[in-house]
Amino acid sequence: MSPWIKLRKVMLQYFAESRWYTILGVTAFYAISSYWLLFAANENELISSVDFFYWLAVTASTVGYGDLSPVTPAGKLIVAIYVIPLGLSIFAMVIGRLAAWVSEQWRKGLLGMTSLDVNNHILVIGWNEQRTMLLLNLLLQERNAMSPKPDIVLCVKADISNPMPGVIEFVKVDSFNKDEDMDRACVASASTILLDNPYDDVTMTTALYCTKRNPDAHQVAYFEDESLVGLLQDHCPNVECTPSVAVEMLAKSAFDPGSSMLHHDLLSIDEGQAQFSVKIPASSPAISIAKLFMNLKRKHDAIFIGYAPRGQVKDMVVNPPLEGTLNPGDTLFYIALSRINSIDWLTLDAD
Questions:
Q1: How far is residue 5's CA from residue 15's CA, in Å, rounded to a whole number?
Q2: Which of 149, 167, 322, 351 could be 290's S-S partner, Cβ–Cβ 3.0 to 4.6 Å?
């Protein structure tokens, strides 16, 4: 085999892949060889300290400001035959490598192959096509009223790409119960975990796993089969379970026309009034329910509908008597046109 064929194979092996160490090595050789060739051609102005690196960069990148240029015949030949052609090749190699790296990172993110670095985020686990898309859109709308705005992460096993690239984070896993997979979605640092899988058995096992990994997260699980709700809450009493209520809405609307529209209005943030919640801060004094009811309507045009003592939603009290009292740490639920972001708790207990 001739030396030229061997050289060609070596060049193809290293430069076709354009690895970073190859690019750095070639760039170093290019800079050093250019310096010595210009030195030999007596181009002293071009090789003086910082000016050399400046001139070499603008020449190799084809910017060519023209403030520095070779003056000797030998220097001009060196620049025309060696510096410019080789510099253009290296510049194209660097740009190509950067473009390929950016494209690969985007592709990995789109396919959910990367590991995230987020915390206090909303983690949605499962894929139910249009229902999940509706859920994501509602979460994004709710998030607009929050400060700071938490990241929303979708974690799936389905063979899909990110349905909202640039809007939500996306992770694709092989199992919802493996640490190495779920760590990529930062399950242990999520503030809220929403489980909505097509199969209730997957929802059950995932809820048990998430409770073990992140017992402090607010966890909500959707079940088609309501009989599984009690079974999960026996083991994970803090998980909020939401069974399907479609049949209940049909029956309710049969005897109370408009009930389904009322519930839709309260759940939707696009139209009319909606239901929200807020936790009474530890710095607030105890508040009379009667005064809270009147002042919440008078000051914020909101309707108080119930509360969860100490934030325990399983002990929720709806339409409590006016003689009662709310304490710091309780979560109150209200109906309003939009979420109330700032409440003066002292004035709510005023006469």
A1: 15
A2: 322
Phi, psi of 194 (to 5 degrees): -110, 125
Ranges of the chain whose pLDDT falls below 50: 7, 12
Helix (H) or strand (E) holding 319: none
**CA dist., res. 86 & res. 79, Å (int):** 10
Q: What's the pLDDT tens digit per position in 71-124? A: 889 888 988 888 888 888 888 777 777 777 777 667 776 777 888 999 999 999
Locate 258 and state its tokens.
């408009």
**Structure tokens of 312?**
């325990």
* Prediction pTM value: 0.65
CA-to-CA distance for 332 and 304, rounded, in angstroms? 7
Residue 189's SS3 state is: helix
Q: What are phi and psi of 21, to 5 degrees?
A: -65, -30
- Whether the CB-CB separation of 326 and 280 falls below 8 Å is answered with yes
Do residues 160 and 95 make contact, with C-beta atoms less than 8 angstroms apart?
Answer: no
pLDDT of residue 3: 62
